[in-house]
Amino acid sequence: xxxxEQYSEDLYLKDEVLEQVRQSILDSGLNDVSIETGxxxxxxxxxxxxxxxxxxxIGALGGYSGICLARGLREDGKLLSLELKEANAxxxxxxxxxxxxxxxxxxxIGPALYSLEELESRDDRFDFFFIDADKENYPNYLxxxxxxxxxxxxxxxxxxxxxxxxxNSDKNGPSVLAMxxxxxxxxxxxxxxxxxLPSYDGLALARVK
Length: 209
Ligand SMILES: C[S@@+](CC[C@H](N)C(=O)[O-])C[C@H]1O[C@@H](n2cnc3c(N)ncnc32)[C@H](O)[C@@H]1O
Fold this sequence. Notes:
single chain, 209 residues, alpha/beta, Rossmann fold, 7 strands, binds S-adenosylmethionine, SAM-dependent_MTases_sf
């Protein structure tokens, strides 16, 4: 029997652009740890529904989520993506250009914490955040996202379950501890209104009050 996720995905026609992105990641010798197809679709829907004009993504890889985010942007909207590795940012950029979003995207290369510090020093603000990089820094990324947000901004974080490790009390490595802290912040921080989606590897959604 199909999983609910497989059943839902099979309802849609093939997305040639996004399939090509996944192939380009594999062709580059990288693991395809892009966002799941159903959640990519949700990103587009959320960006479009929120009317976001400025998006900050943390973790670009090959640009899969970047394209999903850009698809929801208004004509004059911008996506800034923070990526540790230059080669990944280049791959993502190529894929965004091929998808017709070259005009809308910029990359900052290096550890995201440094880039976030720079953005804060410039007093930059964003309407939408997608957190999908090194898990140990998720609580730090969330704190920065709240500080860099316009009121009403949306913050989305991927992989909240860490393939089940978050829920397993025998697992207590740094990524797991950080993800538990991130999830608790999402649920309890008084600056946020939030919800969790338990499909795939889990997704956290929050709105800054
Ligand atoms: C899960 S992948 C991102 C997938 C992408 N969001 C998508 O769905 O298409 C994580 C990415 O975060 C990047 N990354 C890891 N540590 C980072 C850091 N400290 N700062 C910025 N990027 C980082 C990795 O190089 C990798 O490209």
